[in-house]
Design the sequence.
């Protein structure tokens, strides 16, 4: 059965939050079933898990068995590749990682390369060699502030990516850093996420957006509305954007993703609503008192 190409891809940073039984999954869902359930609602997920550890081959095969062909898994290269010296020294490990995920086929499109703040413009030659050796769809996230200064170094990066058909991932952490809070989850996220200006690039047909929201969902609305307009514009241009929604502890990430999608539906009436899982009878906590 051929599934029409979606207008865009939307998802969260992961699928494995037990707390999502309160908002997304049935109360009695098994954790082993989370990915299959998640893929019934969203059509993409950030592959953050592969940044921290390589999955076992049996795990990859299980993912391949439950994910539909139209689903997109933006697998991050492990940090020992992206954050451990010269990128050119890890090309064998890169090939091994690509082969490990081969059972997922086109569902891994694109791969993600997240570079640290220590990756400076002087290392762009490494990046060019990495891209040329990979020969796979790729998106790159940079964090060194020189790449956000609107000077020649940022232009060099953008030209390199544009010439090779590689997308620049846009991280928008403005909502997170607009939040003044004593919540440990917010403080932790603010200590870990980069405070960089958003760069809504569209260097390819597949713009990539990571949106780091506040815990109060309605406080994100001004930013959500901005991004909905940008994403709608990209779709009208014939592009297929990817949009991933985060919250500080990601417990509310599915709710924020659905909030974004509803806003986008106002701009694109042809966009269908996200599916809802049958969560079965829900326990009313008042009944337990």
Sequence:
């Amino acid at each position: 059965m051929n599934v029409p190409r979606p207008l865009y891809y939307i998802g969260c940073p992961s699928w494995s939050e037990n707390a999502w039984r309160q908002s997304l999954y049935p109360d009695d869902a098994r954790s082993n079933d989370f990915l299959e359930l998640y893929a019934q609602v969203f059509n993409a997920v950030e592959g953050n898990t592969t940044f921290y550890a390589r999955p076992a081959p049996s795990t990859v095969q299980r993912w391949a068995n439950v994910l539909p062909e139209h689903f997109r898994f933006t697998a991050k290269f492990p940090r020992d590749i992206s954050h451990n010296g010269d990128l050119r020294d890890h090309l064998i490990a890169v090939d091994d990682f690509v082969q490990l995920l081969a059972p997922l086929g086109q569902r891994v499109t694109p791969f993600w390369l997240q570079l640290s703040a220590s990756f400076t413009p002087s290392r762009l030659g490494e990046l060019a060699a990495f891209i040329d050796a990979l020969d796979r769809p790729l998106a790159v996230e940079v964090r060194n502030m020189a790449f956000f200064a609107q000077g020649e170094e940022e232009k060099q990066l953008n030209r390199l990516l544009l010439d090779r058909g590689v997308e620049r991932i846009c991280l928008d952490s403005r909502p997170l850093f607009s939040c003044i809070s004593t919540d440990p989850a917010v403080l932790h996220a603010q200590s870990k996420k980069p405070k960089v200006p958003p760069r809504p690039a569209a260097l390819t047909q597949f713009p990539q957006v990571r949106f780091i929201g506040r815990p109060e969902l309605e406080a994100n609305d001004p930013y959500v509305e901005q991004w909905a307009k940008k994403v709608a514009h990209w779709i009208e241009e014939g592009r297929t954007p990817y949009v991933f929604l985060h919250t500080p502890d990601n417990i509310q990430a599915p709710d924020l993703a659905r909030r974004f999608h509803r806003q986008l539906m106002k701009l694109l009436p042809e966009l269908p609503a996200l599916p809802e899982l049958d969560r079965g009878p829900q326990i009313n906590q008042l009944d337990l008192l």
Observations:
- The chain has a mean pLDDT of 94.
